[in-house]
Automatic annotation (TrEMBL), chains A, B:
Identification of the protein by name: Glycolate oxidase
Gene3D superfamilies: 3.30.465.10, 3.30.70.2740, Vanillyl-alcohol Oxidase, Chain A, domain 4
Organism this protein belongs to: Phycicoccus duodecadis
Pfam families: FAD-oxidase_C (PF02913), FAD_binding_4 (PF01565)
InterPro entries from the UniProt entry: FAD-bd_oxidored_4_C, FAD-bd_PCMH, FAD-bd_PCMH-like_sf, FAD-bd_PCMH_sub2, FAD-linked_Oxase-like_C, FAD-linked_OxidoTrans_Type4, Oxid_FAD_bind_N, Vanillyl_alc_oxidase_C-sub2
Cofactor: FAD
The FAD-binding PCMH-type domain, residue ranges: 36-214
Keywords on record: FAD, Flavoprotein, Oxidoreductase
Stated family: Belongs to the FAD-binding oxidoreductase/transferase type 4 family.
GO MF annotation: an example: oxidoreductase activity
Length: 454, 454
């Protein structure tokens, strides 16, 4: 432990700061598993906001970069370690408290999404945002990336549920923004600015999250389409009249990957599959399901099945959620997260198919189709540099295809380090300059999450 | 017209810049009608983003303050003219275009909220945010204040519907943020930062607004309570299980003011009235209405009536909306907009009653009760300085009562000029400093809406 790190370790309780290489290993990679990962000079496992403040004051004093880290499930390199930096882990700060009268959860950033959901459910309340990784990802990471998920098409994303936060700025100042009140327009919307800032502006040490009454068990429609274009057309048709609580798409490659991994009897010849849920209350459920079925049939579905059995529905949702895991045996994966306006979905999916052919890589696609947010997964052979080279070309091409269609390089994973080079291609030099101005105003020494997008 | 103004007038088409005192009169006051209003040196009636850019480049060059203005319906002095400044009116920029496939409206800032609603309705789509002034307020003003309204309790506020915008910065640079895509986390959430910034960071010249399928005609429940505390308890009870589409409260003074103005047979002896709507789809409506009625009865309502007739329901909503107009014959009004966490609603309402007695002023209250957002209206005699003095004391006391209860000085109207002095009391010095840092980064010369909250 060098003198500089020792100064921090001495200021914090024993065991908070670790520098042992074996212990540090855990804090290097996130789920990106990118080979450009560095090694931190230390990891700080904060147990309180005071520890975070102490760490940032120390980092500012010494000009040391700080990489914040929740559960380390970033798919865009958002919490990858950087050589010489300190990784600030929030994993030990995971208190969750429910205020039923105010319908809010007051949570620490290390709490897992699933832990907040469970605590809310115990009071017949619901915290909607549900990234596919909800069982293993932290609320702090969700806030950092403005995480989405499957129910967002009806219930919105993380930012829609953040009513308040404590955030520690680069210089160690703790600022409280918002609170338990639902509506508040006093001053600039700084709360919303910190959501999605990927640890580049400050570190959230507490959040007040809005809860809603418990969701009804949903009914599920599975529709098989000859082509992805037909499925995408059905997505638009459904959205015209129905507020479905889930509108997910799997293309042929994804269906086959899942069937290979865990056979469920999905139609391997389908061009695409739509998985649609309705949680409409009471007797209106039937009407909504009928409208979804009709929309699918109108758009050329060759097989449509509906079930009111939550267990059966959950089985299909599991098939969708397992997509990412199902790809593991096939090789390494570059996970994409591009989005387009919903009407551009067919064009984007066609473009992805062309890119897969052009670069001779497999690109199974799942999509939060109702929001136009797709997850093409570029599969490659990690041991074969040529395969990896082609995969990286495809990765860039997919992002530029989305941009060309008026879309985004990231709908919910964040820019992180993997996509930092492409951000300006999407938002343009003027918006990029504005990002830099806000960053410079809040973190003038640039110590927060260095090497990230701004 | 002085030489400096002439330089701008010459750069813009004829009729865009006006300096004639009679013509300027229209651009002095907003709905605040505050006596501290100034007189602008000129008004610019921009017809395009280019005119806005030209104006801001000129203002930066000469260090002249610019007060942006939509329909001039601010209740917090947000668009009050300032001596020596230029008022930049967006009233002529009011195009509205609906993209049905993407379910968005692309609008110019001067378009009225009602115009966007109507254009969406023509395509069976709906733009939810509905400030009480929706027939006369502009979308630009709605975005500037992150306006709310009656349906927010279920459908959220303006920021939840803004997917993209063009904004002109102080130096005249036009930046495009977001677009027609529903989910996008690329870069900092600058879009959300501009929403609610009250014209202090930039001027919105175009907005992309999210639309949803048309709302079903609602069923309405009217419940009469012996006390406001009972009514407030019912609000919490309703929120526990039901997602009502409207939860409005009127206290006795408000009921009587409305009855005096337009007799509707409301119970003048009621302590408070709740106006609750359900727009649950199809046959589930009945269940939701029954749950609302049961919650009201559980909390001591002495009379509860429900109707499925939209026309009858709308009559009650009109009674609620007319509140503000109904006060006109009673004197001048200082309109409040304080909010608290919903469980603090009874305490806030009791505190307001005590403040009314203490300062011997009438303070009828209506509230978007489901969100904890109240509109106490402090009535005073404009011709009597002593009455006005007491009203202003009450105005401050109401804000500090909300702050003491963990609330906000403004839930949806904005801080503007009227509440600028109280903002730091609510958010504290650290958050205030953060507001100033962001303001300085984006508007270093401080030309945008000078004298406003930051």
């Amino acid at each position: 432990m060098d003198d500089v790190v020792k100064e921090l370790a001495d200021a914090l309780p024993a065991g908070v700061v670790v520098t042992d290489p074996a212990a540090l290993e855990k804090y290097r990679h996130d789920w990106t598993h990118d080979s450009s990962v560095g090694t931190p000079r230390a990891a700080v496992r904060a147990e309180s906001a005071e520890h975070v403040q102490e760490t940032l004051r120390w980092a500012t004093r010494h000009g040391i970069g700080v990489v914040p880290r929740g559960a380390g499930t970033s798919l865009s390199g958002g919490s990858m370690a950087v050589d010489g930096c300190v990784t600030l882990s929030l994993e030990r700060m995971r208190a969750v408290e429910i205020d039923t009268a105010a319908k809010v959860a007051v949570v620490e950033p290390g709490a897992l999404n699933v832990e907040v959901k469970k605590a809310a459910a115990a009071e017949d309340l619901w915290y909607p945002p549900d990234p596919s990784s909800f069982e293993i990802c932290s609320i702090g990471g969700n806030i950092a990336t403005n995480a989405g998920g499957l129910c967002c098409v009806k219930y919105g994303v993380t930012t829609d549920y953040v009513l308040g936060m404590d955030v520690v700025l680069a210089d160690g100042t703790l600022v409280t923004l918002g609170g338990k009140r639902v509506k508040d327009v006093a001053g600039l919307s700084l709360l919303k600015l910190f959501v999605g800032s990927e640890g580049t502006l400050g570190i959230v040490t507490k959040a007040v999250l809005r809860l809603v009454p418990a969701q009804q068990p949903a009914s599920t429609v599975i529709a098989i389409f000859p082509t992805v274009a037909d499925a995408a057309a059905a997505v638009i048709e459904i959205g015209r009249t129905v507020r479905a609580s889930m509108v997910e798409l799997m293309d042929r490659a994804s269906i086959n990957a899942v069937e290979d991994f865990r056979p469920m009897g999905l139609d391997r010849d389908a061009g695409a599959l739509l998985l649609v849920q309705s949680d409409a209350p009471g007797a209106s459920r039937e009407e909504e399901v009928a409208a979804i079925v009709a929309a699918c049939e109108l758009c050329g579905a060759k097989d449509v099945e509906a079930t009111d059995d939550p267990a059966e529905g959950e089985m299909f949702v599991q098939a969708r959620r397992v997509h990412f895991t199902a790809l593991e045996p096939r090789g390494a994966v570059l996970p994409e997260d591009v989005g387009v306006p919903v009407p551009q979905l067919p064009a984007l999916l066609a473009e992805i198919e062309a890119i897969a052919q052009r670069h001779q890589v497999e690109i199974p696609v799942v999509a939060h189709a109702g929001d136009g947010n797709t997850h093409p997964a570029i599969v490659y052979d990690a041991g074969d540099p040529e395969s990896e080279r082609r995969a990286r070309l495809a990765f860039d091409d997919v992002m530029h295809a989305a941009i060309a269609l008026g879309g985004t390089i990231t709908g919910e994973h964040g820019v992180g380090r993997l996509k930092a080079g492409c951000l300006e291609d999407q938002i343009g030099p003027a918006a990029m300059a504005l990002n830099r101005r806000v960053k410079a105003a809040l973190d003038p020494d640039g110590i927060l999450n260095p090497g990230s997008f701004v």
